[in-house]
Amino acid sequence: MKKRRILLLISLLFCTFLQLLVELPQIHQTQVSHQESNFKGIWSSIIQVEKTSPNHKTVSVAASGVSHSQMSEKMDVAYKLFGIFPLSSGEVEVMNPIKLIPGGQSIGVTLQTKGVMVVGQAPVLDKNGKNSFPAKEAGIQVGDILLKIENQEVKTDQEVSNAINLAGKQKGSVNVIFKHQDQVVEKTVHPIFCVETGRYRMGLFVRDEAAGVGTLSFLDPVTNLYGALGHVITDADTNQKIEVYDGKIIASTIYAIEKGKRGHPGEKIGSFVPNSIFSGTIEKNTMTGIFGKMSGRIENPYFKEAIPVGWESEVKVGPAKIYTVIQGEKIEEFTVNIDRVMKNRTDSKNMIVRVTDPRLLEVTGGIIQGMSGSPIVQDGKLIGAVTHVFVNDSQRGYGVFIQNMLNDSSQLDKKEAA
Q: Regarding beta strands 30-31 and 85-95, do their DSSP bridges make them parallel or antiparallel, or are they unpaired?
């Protein structure tokens, strides 16, 4: 009987040991901080972990020098039985601590595109009463970006209109250079004299700027780098990413709320503050938000100091809080729940967020447009920002990992160092 118990115990230990061997790569897949080992008790003396820097020592994904610290470094890890016999090895990413100030401020966003975007086709009525589409016939499509007309750069819709009219008068044709699906194309267009406007036209609706209201996500108090919105800015008509030529953010005030309901997303209705206490440049428009440098005074009454960033591996299902403005310029705190975490996604849909705060549900119906970028804090750490609302369920929406936003913002460093 005693032998049988001993054999059973040995079998259990052996099975546990085998399972541990299978799971070794997963145990240290990603670490949040520099730590000695995840093994506890007897296993800590049986299985030892050795960490060494690989030849490429560190891989930085730092966000413009955020907190003067690298976000992560990669390290080789070896698992050894009794510190002698190798069991497994692999590479892990060790995340370094970073502190940021959560946003929540309502911001007005204005940006000018690189070139002028084609947002629609417009028939030109000629002297014979016939409708024509000169640009369309030449191959210019909705979503294309007009770069040059007659070898002169165009940045505004008025510049496009004037250049076409002048070329039409002088020679009856116009040379157009434009971007089509990341390809630069050159075409000759024959504009038509429009009897309705008294000008030569080529039959396009164009737009050179965009504006809207959103929410600030974070500010690095050391570098003054900010992140906002949590998602890319696209053109309202073409739904294509806007290539930024110039832009800025300033404070905005919310004066009305259009409550969200099933099938109809709600919206914050606001206006820009003329004498804003802060302003920021827009240097990048990415999948996970807009980024630039901030100047002026940024205040969040809930956070007098910067708080730690919560990395992807720390985000969990459960309660959290968001910070946003629903009236005037006052930031308020609301409760939410993280219903689902989708790790290893690099876009802006990394978690499903459900509003649980009774007051926010009463006022807004849940997540509404203009709330994009509202910071999400869980267990005292900034883990992400609100990005999208579910059209058929306004109480729920997506959130982006703050880690993904920081990864995108790091491109600013590369640009400045070039």
A: parallel
Identify whether the C-beta of residue 314 lies closer than 8 Å to the C-beta of residue 32: yes
Give the confidence band of 82 by pLDDT, cuts at 50, 70, 90.
low
Give the residue range(s) of CATH 2.40.10.120 domains in the chain.
101-109+209-417
CATH topology of domain 123-202: Pdz3 Domain (2.30.42)
Residues 6+ away with beta carbon under 8 Å from 380: 307, 308
Q: How many CB atoms lie within 10 A of CB 367?
A: 31
pTM of the model: 0.75
Cα 398 to Cα 9, 259, 296, 352, 358, distances in angstroms: 48, 18, 30, 5, 19
What is the CATH number assigned to the segment(s) 101-109+209-417? 2.40.10.120
The pair phi, psi for residue 319, each rounded to 5°, is -70, 150
Q: How many CB atoms lie within 10 A of CB 179?
A: 17
Residues with catalytic roles? 231, 357, 372
The CATH 2.30.42.10 portion of the chain extends over 123-202
Q: How far apart are the C-alpha atoms of 193 and 172, rounded to whole Å?
A: 9
pLDDT, tens only, 235-275: 777 778 888 888 999 999 999 999 988 888 899 999 999 89
pLDDT digits (tens, 9 = 90+) for 164-207: 999 999 999 999 999 988 899 999 999 999 988 899 999 999 88
Closest among 196, 194, 82, 198 to 135, alpha carbons compared: 194
